[in-house]
């Protein structure tokens, strides 16, 4: 954290105090990047959770399986790393005044005033539109969710996962490996088709069947049944699915409500320009809570992926310090399901040409590319083929 980047010329208008709201991946990436670039001013990190920043991807994978513990998740590798940050943990930000210097109001009645505020409050798991306060019904976003779910899975026999997106698929994969009977229910007819396209969506859906998980697509949850604890789920086609654990994985909502009244532009996330600047002076937003202007598509885009949150955290530190921007890599994400590593980079459209360029989906190892009508590579997907994937990813730039 204390090392310096030699030979980098910074702007002379360096802020004295930077406050980061959200003890998150994007937030800590910004803090670490500020220090790496030689920033010696004060950095305060505000977090509503009591934990120091931790990594979320293992929560649906190794942590649920019991092959990773809480200590393995820390994003601060050594005590020394966190020493030059003032931590305000366990207290949410409840308001922002951005008229003069940004002032963050905290839930305990205190406030932090800084020269620059970086908002990195992430997203929260979306709830089902039906009554879901029964015991045994879970969403999975944070460490405490994962601890409670892991405990419940250890005593469960039948699990229903609502939503066949990445989190749902990963939870199903972990639960079946723990020896449980798992059903995944999904509202759309083609799970993951909106992200990966119909061909790849179908290949990913086939993984559920191949691994002994029942997938019901094109149905929605009508009701969760039970008195105190959940006993099952009634689906829109009248099927009753018995369950002692139900995991809801139906997407995430950006955490922006706390800043209502600040005058910030909000539309499915804090709206920013391509350099993460909001419409208020000296207030920036990054990670899952931010919808950042994307110069390539000409639209504001909110990503919900690890590499995007980490990359934006690093990039905003450069902006705040007045350093020249680095070239941004193509969007990238990965997922682990049923023992396979899935990776995707780039952006494709429905009209792009899809082709399997290496391997065989039936063998669980392949690479597929999407190209536009001119033959230009737009996106690449791989299952268990990291090396070949990396080559195509480099081509994407
Ligand atoms: C279970 C799970 C598995 C995942 N797996 C993958 C994967 O395999 N691959 C991949 O690419 N991505 C994955 N992701 C997504 C990735 O982890 C997220 O994109 C990333 O964590 C977003 O980071 P962030 O910094 O924007 O926000 P977050 O990690 O959401 O952190 C935001 C923090 O801000 C806090 N906060 C919210 N409101 C306030 C407030 N008012 N005041 C103070 N603090 C507040 C939150 O409690 C939280 O601690 C996964 C996510 C989850 C939940």
Strand content: 25-35%
Q: Output the structural class.
A: alpha/beta
Give the mean pLDDT: 94
- CATH class descriptor name of the largest domain: Alpha Beta
Short note summarizing the structure:
The chain is of the alpha/beta class. 21% of the residues lie in helices and 30% in strands.
Top keywords for this entry?
five-stranded parallel beta sheet; 3 domains; 397 residues; FAD/NAD(P)-binding domain; Enolase-like, domain 1; binds flavin-adenine dinucleotide; 21% helix; alpha/beta
Helices and strands, with pairings:
Elements: E1 17-21, H1 25-36, E2 42-47, H2 62-65, E3 86-89, E4 93-97, E5 103-106, E6 111-113, E7 116-119, E8 123-125, E9 137-139, H3 143-153, E10 158-162, H4 166-177, E11 181-186, H5 193-196, H6 198-210, E12 214-217, E13 221-225, E14 232-235, E15 240-242, E16 245-248, E17 252-254, E18 270-272, E19 283-285, E20 290-294, E21 299-301, H7 306-320, E22 332-337, E23 340-346, E24 353-360, E25 365-371, E26 377-383, H8 386-396
Parallel strand pairs: 1-2, 1-7, 2-3, 7-19, 9-16, 10-11, 10-16, 11-12, 18-20
Antiparallel strand pairs: 4-5, 5-6, 8-17, 13-14, 14-15, 20-21, 22-23, 23-26, 24-25, 25-26
Helix pairs in contact: 1-7
The structure holds flavin-adenine dinucleotide.
